[in-house]
């Protein structure tokens, strides 16, 4: 069985040319002969010319002069036939050449795609193919380039994610290991405050691992939700109460401005509590002493309640907007882990809100604070 596409296309072109030229040659030969005999009959007026021969071998010499043509006429017909078959041979050769040319033009880009796809399969996502035409092959080439570009971005994102995870895990582990080595070597005597510091690092490490697990499950769509109808006002005020002490320590006021008549929302209370906690924690981290945090809600879109968390912090620069909800992204790279967070809180917010079918976005001006919005489905 023939596997090469170029050979198949070449044979197809050659077959089409052979059939077409053969049909045309036979039709022209018969047409020329019949018309020429008719011409001879008219010209000789039914009389057999000198040296004429019968063109009908089945007549038995009884055809009269109707089917007789002269030697010159026969020579003319032979010349026409020879020219016709010579033209047919040239047409076949040209068809074969064009068949190979067209098959090469069609299969050439396909070979490039095959080689590029094999390199992508072994991890070389920098491969691109040239898009020389706007036909179907050009569309396939464009689709391949788009796929390779997306794979390259995902690979870079994965590598960066692994590097960020390693960095975030290394910090608490280094602190724990350093303290334990100092205690084992007798350099330091374990004191309650030092033990408490090591314990805090273990708690932070455990929370980071739990968040990473939940985030990976949410991105894979495998995080299960236990949704129920919830009164949003009571839910928000309960969350404000839980963070009131932290706000007082930072001298930041927190309040809620909720309209009356808000409908019940259909949510997983634990997951949306985590969303609010992360947004309030983010606002509290970047709001200076004397600042404010305000939580609001509105019901302007049928079927959806929009919740907002606004702060009076330093705001977000416009160039950072596309990356706010990315893993481990920190707009202020100078902040260390203790002040800047691990960088997955907002990524978790995005995934949890989208699991509920909602969406999340941010509005901010540098120096004028930020407002984070997210939508929740109405029960």
Protein model, in words:
This protein is an alpha+beta fold. Helices cover 58% and strands 13% of the residues. The strands form three sheets. A five-stranded mixed beta sheet has the order 4-6-7-9-8. Strands 1-2 form a two-stranded antiparallel sheet. The chain has a two-stranded antiparallel sheet with strand order 3-5. A hairpin with a 5-residue loop joins strand 8 (360-364) and strand 9. The longest helix is centred in the first third of the chain and has 51 residues, at 71-121. The model is unreliable at 61-66 and 333-340 (pLDDT under 50).
Order of helices and strands: HEEHHHEHEEHEEHHEE
Query: How many strands?
Result: 9
Taking pLDDT < 50 over at least 5 consecutive residues as the criterion, the unreliable ranges are: 61-66, 333-340
Estimate the mean pLDDT confidence.
78
The assigned structural class equals: alpha+beta
Strand ordering within the main sheet: 4-6-7-9-8
Helix proportion range: 55-70%
- Quaternary: single chain
Question: Biggest β-sheet, characterized?
Answer: 5 strands, mixed
First CA to last CA: what distance?
A: 63 Å
Number of helical segments with 4 or more residues: 8
Comma- or semicolon-separated keywords:
379 residues; alpha+beta; five-stranded mixed sheet; 8 helices; 9 strands; elongated
Topology:
Blueprint (H helix, E strand, L loop, with lengths): L4 H40 L8 E2 L13 E2 L1 H51 L14 H49 L7 H28 L7 E4 L1 H18 L3 E5 L7 E4 H18 L5 E10 L2 E8 L25 H4 L4 H11 L4 E5 L5 E8 L2
Parallel strand pairs: 4-6
Antiparallel strand pairs: 1-2, 3-5, 6-7, 7-9, 8-9
Helix pairs in contact: 1-2, 2-3, 3-4, 4-8, 5-6, 6-8
